[in-house]
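Notes from the 1:1 (GR / supervisor)

We went over the backlog. Supervisor wanted to see one worked example end to end before approving the batch request, so GR pasted a single chain during the call. The sequence is below; no edits were made to it. Supervisor asked that the structure be written out right there so they could see what the output format looks like.
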Amino acid sequence: MPIALENVTYVYAPDTPWEQEALSGVSVEVQDGDFLGIVGPTGSGKSTLIQHMNGLLLPTHGRVLVDGEEVGKDRKALRALRRKVGMVFQYPEHQLFEETVEADIAFGPKNLGLDSDEIAERVRWAVTSVGLPDDILERSPFELSGGQMRRVAIAGVLAMRGTVLILDEPTSGLDPRGRAGLVEQLKRLNRAGITMIMVSHSMEDMAQLVNRIVVLSEGKVVIDDSKRAVFSRLEDLANLSLDVPRVTNVMLEMRRAGLPVPLDVLTVNEGIEALCQVLRGSDIVEE
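Structure output shown during the call:
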């Protein structure tokens, strides 16, 4: 498996008046090809958790393994780890700084000391992987739309040729068109074999993208299951002040109105199909 956290506890500012335990005995496994979603209330430890996955933070107790190797045991290996496990922070377009898109995407590979042909090949591959045309390479990143800038920032991480991509609120602040385009590209990247880990408050994004969800509360894992199983636990999520996809709420209201619709509906298309089955008189829910 690419990543495993084993009984990880992390304490900020230990042995000071500001000491705070952000994670407490957290164990999470990420399998090859996963698209793992991480959700939880504000302050539940989501950002702290993902920063352990590429060695930006090291556990106070417990350990993190990446491809079987313990993170932090050899601090010289951390640089190689961060090439393997890429991190895209919230609003990554704020980190764009070069004069052209090409220069921004090439920045990481250049720092690896690669030759110019290899750098050019990586830049072309990365920009294609995020669904942008080659002719965008000569443009300034600051002339692009928000969604395009977000994709350029992701391309810069992909150009490092990692096998795991961690995203913190990847669609935050995007308009509907930019969000839809980015969601489709993330799906394609995962289908192409990149293991994905995503923190998001958007339950619509979770419903469309991930196959499994970890729910955090007060620094602990309280749910770790398939997305359908997680979103079917309406009362547990409500107790954590977490929502479900809007279409799931619509199904719940239909059920309360007496229609025998299922509650594990996560997308609009699934909702339409479920409603059509009811209207055709199909028994799709056990009474």
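Supervisor's comment: The mean pLDDT is 91.
Batch request approved.
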